[in-house]
Amino acid sequence: MNKDHIIFLIGRINYKANRFLRDELEKHGIAGLAPSHGEILGVLLMRGEVQMTQLTEYIDKDKSTITALVNKLIWLGYVKKRKDDDDNRISRIALTEKGASLKPGIMDISRKLRKKAYENIRERDKKILYTLLSKINMNF
Q1: Of 3, 15, 100, 108, which sits most exposed with the smallest number of CB within 10 A?
Q2: The CATH number, out of the four listed (3.30.70.20, 3.30.70.260, 3.30.428.10, 1.10.10.10), of the domain defined by the range 3-138
Q3: Displacement of CA 101 from its chain's centroid (Å)
Q4: Is the pLDDT of residue 29 over 90?
Q5: Cα(90)–Cα(125) distance, rounded to whole angstroms?
Q6: Which residue has the higher pLDDT, 36 or 81?
């Protein structure tokens, strides 16, 4: 193992995981979405209606990227946007009925991804891996 290839390996894992997610989204009839769209749908499924600024924090992407992703989800009919009742400057995002109907598929895809990623990895090793990757993440 060449310890200098760790970042390359992380990139390869990201590429393969995203390919896996795209394939699974397609199998579930959720075509035309990128894994980043799935992240937004996942947040909305777990948290309900959120502010746009909260999405940027939860998903760790910049505002313009989140806006583009949300706009596509709106166009596809999965989410809706409204102004906050108390502050017109704040946009709130929520799932539509069509978006909420994706929950079983999204949950299944998430379960399959975790199963695939952690195959043959002991719980103790997962904790160590999480700690180390978190340290690398904090360096940026």
Answers
A1: 3
A2: 1.10.10.10
A3: 17
A4: no
A5: 42
A6: 81
